[in-house]
Specification:
- The complex is a heterodimer of chains A (228) and B (240).
- Chain A is mostly helical.
- Chain A has one domain: Orthogonal Bundle (MetI-like fold), CATH 1.10.3720.
- Chain A contains nine helices and no strands.
- In chain A, α6 runs antiparallel to α7.
- The radius of gyration of chain A is 22 Å and the shape is flat.
- Chain B has 240 residues and is of the alpha/beta class.
- Chain B is 39% helix and 25% strand.
- In chain B, the strands form two sheets. A six-stranded mixed sheet of chain B has the order 6-7-8-3-9-10, sandwiched between helices.
- The two termini of chain B are 34 Å apart.
- The chains are: A mainly alpha (228), B alpha/beta (240).
- The interface between A and B is medium-sized, with 27 and 34 residues.
- The structure holds adenosine-5'-diphosphate and magnesium ion (MG).
- The site of magnesium ion has 4 residues of chain B, from α1.
- Magnesium ion (MG) binds next to α1 of chain B.
Chain lengths: 228, 240
């Protein structure tokens, strides 16, 4: 058997279209799952019992069921009760809902490690509960949660490939089509693996840059002398 | 004026304050001394509404800490400086000092920053305004902590062992700031183990032991004409 990438190159446009869909879906789901995860984390440790219970049940349900089943449930199940579904929006929704559960746990852990001392300080100066959350707890919790969240975002990118099972034309989906047309699975999937790698490296890079930009001088570390 | 009236404080079964009554007059510096675990921190945290009292009453300028609607006002009038600084790690020195004035007192950013720079200058840190707490030494962090408390224009400053978490060679710079404030007539309640310092700055001294107020005397009587033998021994021990 001869290794031959020319069929891959001839279908490059189609594969790039898939890549664009993957990136779009990933970016949308990263933002949505982050916002939803933040809300869930706050509910999870809220003083209101109802919110606490809602958040724990949500998190437990989503973390203890397979993503592909959640996806099929939404995509094939909802139309049955009269809610029409479309592959891409449903895919983004399913991915966001599922990843929000994991993000919520990461952010909650971050919130719980924020020192009681700074909360005391905020309270002692008469800051309201909302102000303490907004200006003291969340910025520090997100700094602590940022790297684990970055790992979660990378996982999310990889999980977008599952959406091809509900006919989303993402990179994995289009790759399967090209592979079937060209009978060159080795070349096709090798190309696609490298591409996924490039995407996740980019995501990690962005996550790390944001950390460096926002938090590099904040973390506890040896005192640096002579830089103003 | 701060009036403490027959205050008890329990944590579960543990009684931390028992029947404490005392008054702090405006313009006075009161040092609170006593062995570790005596309830000194708890007492000033109760004044600042960081802890709820179990019995009795505390009134700050006539407002009771039991009145929930007054909590915010009492906290505006009493500012804490913490043993472990409790600076906000994600904000610069300037950000630490201006946060509560802008959010609680609703000062403009410019006004708050001007005041903050003035305070930083007073404690000799005007060139460290843009540093983060992790980039400051303990003594510098605590001086920022003092500025943060003063930026609220409190009527009463509460200081909890503000030098005990600092390297010995840096305590002097912090004590000097407090001494200046005392000289300017700021009302202060300061919990401290620095007996010589208390002798220099305090108008009155309170001595606590196992949750009770054992003595509350003017500083001269306390240090120079102490009649209670146990307190005299404590003073003697702290000197060395
Ligand atoms: N949040 C708390 N829960 C339970 N016990 C506490 C708490 N805070 C303080 N205590 C206890 O109350 C006692 C007095 O503490 P504290 O006021 O910090 O004493 P001091 O400042 O005089 O050293 C100690 O025995 C301490 O362990
Ligand atoms: Mg203490």
């Amino acid at each position: 058997m001869r290794i031959d990438f020319s069929p891959v190159l001839s279908r490059l446009d189609y594969l790039l279209e898939g890549l664009a869909v993957t990136v779009l879906v990933a970016v949308a789901a990263i933002f949505l799952s982050f916002a939803l995860g933040l809300l869930l984390a706050i509910c999870r440790i809220s003083r209101t019992r109802g919110l606490r219970i809602f958040a724990s049940v949500y998190i437990d349900v989503f973390r203890n069921t397979p993503f592909i089943v959640q996806l099929f449930f939404l995509y094939y199940g909802l139309p049955e009760i009269g809610i029409p579904t479309d592959p891409m929006p449903t895919g983004i929704l399913a991915l966001s809902l599922a990843c929000a559960a994991g993000n919520a746990e990461i952010i909650r852990a971050g919130i719980e490690t924020v020192s009681k001392g700074i909360v005391d300080a905020g309270r002692s100066f008469g800051m309201s509960g909302y102000q303490i959350y907004r200006y003291l707890i969340l910025p520090n919790a997100l700094r602590i949660a940022w790297r684990p969240l970055g790992n979660a975002f990378v996982n999310l990118v990889l999980t977008t490939s599952v959406l091809s099972t509900i006919t989303v034309n993402d990179l994995a989906g289009n790759a399967a089509n090209v592979s079937a047309e060209t009978f060159k699975p080795f070349e096709v999937y090798l190309t696609v693996l490298v591409t996924y790698c490039a995407v996740t490296f980019t995501v990690s890079g962005i996550v790390n840059s944001i950390y460096a930009l926002l938090f590099s001088r904040v973390a506890e570390r040896p005192v640096m002398r002579g830089h103003a | 004026m701060i009036e403490i009236d027959n205050v008890d404080k329990h944590y579960g079964n543990l009684q931390v304050l028992s029947a404490v009554s005392m008054q702090f007059q405006d313009g006075e510096v009161t040092a609170i001394l006593g062995p570790s675990g005596a309830g000194k921190s708890t007492l000033i945290r109760c004044i600042n509404c960081l802890e709820l009292i179990s019995q009795g009453d505390i009134r700050v300028d006539g407002m009771s800490v039991l009145d929930k609607h007054r909590t915010a006002e009492i906290q505006k009038r009493t500012s804490m400086v913490f043993q472990h600084f409790n600076l906000y790690p994600h904000l610069t020195a300037l950000g630490n000092i201006t946060l509560a004035p802008t959010k609680v007192l609703r000062q403009s950013r410019a006004q708050a920053e001007a005041k903050a720079m003035e305070l930083l200058k007073m404690v000799g840190l005007e060139n460290k305004a843009k540093r983060y707490p992790a980039e400051l030494s303990g003594g510098e962090q605590q001086r920022v902590g003092i500025c943060r408390a003063l930026a609220m224009n409190p009527r009463h400053l509460l200081l909890d062992e503000v030098t005990s978490a600092i390297d010995p060679e840096m305590t002097a710079e912090v004590l000097r700031v407090i001494e200046d404030l005392a000289g300017q007539g700021t009302t202060m309640i300061l919990v401290t183990h620095e007996i010589e310092f208390a002798r220099r700055v305090a108008d009155r001294v309170a001595f606590m032991e196992r949750g009770s107020l054992v003595a509350h005397q003017d500083a001269d009587t306390f240090f120079n004409r102490q009649s209670d033998e146990r307190i005299a021994r404590f003073i003697d021990k702290m000197k060395h």
